[in-house]
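User: Can you help me understand a structure? I only have the sequence.
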Amino acid sequence: MDAYTIIMHLKKLFDEACRIERYETSKELFCCKITKDYLVKTLVLKINGYIKKLGQLVLSWTMS
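Assistant: Let's start by predicting it. Here is the structure, written out as tokens:
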């Protein structure tokens, strides 16, 4: 195997892992809902964390 083939294989593996992580994070974000026992502040912080994580994942995906 030459270096180009190895790099392209690694890129494919990492792209797939990033896609899966974006999907899982999006799923968690869209499943967030408030219940009686849940504090609004806690929910907002949780949603904010998911949005920041998605932003980082999308940024890293677009840069590659």
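Now, to help you interpret it: The chain has one domain: 3-63. The two ends are 22 Å apart (CA to CA). Let me know which part you'd like to focus on.
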